[in-house]
Design goal:
110 residues; alpha+beta; Maf protein; 31% strand; elongated
Length: 110
């Protein structure tokens, strides 16, 4: 899911996500050089985000904050939108943008 193109699009997206599970995929690639050899490390993380049931009024109030308008899926795990999240299975940081733990693991291998 991309960022909403309008307030109506944000409403539609949040209405669809509410009460459901959505999956956030976060990919990363690191290129390192060891012994004059280029090594590529490519990986991804899949995080399950369980959304609470939310009312039309709650969605409208959230949209008024402006937060959903530049967020993929029309909500921010780390922001006001966190109040709509029941639970997260997987990497929290992946839900925000990049899986810090996965990045650290790759960097340690480099």
């Amino acid at each position: 899911m991309g960022k909403p193109i309008s307030k109506e699009d944000a409403f539609r997206t949040l209405k669809m996500l509410q009460g459901n599970i959505n999956y956030v995929y976060s990919g990363l690639a690191v290129i390192s050089k060891k012994n004059e050899k280029i090594i590529e490390h490519v990986d991804f993380t899949k995080t399950a985000v369980y959304m609470k049931k939310i009312t039309n009024e709650e969605i409208e109030e959230y949209i008024k904050t402006g937060e959903p308008m530049d967020k993929a899926g029309s909500y921010a795990v780390q922001g006001i939108g966190s109040k709509f999240i029941e639970k997260i299975e997987g990497s929290y940081s992946s839900g925000v943008g990049i899986d810090i733990e996965k990045l650290e693991e790759i960097l340690n291998r480099c």
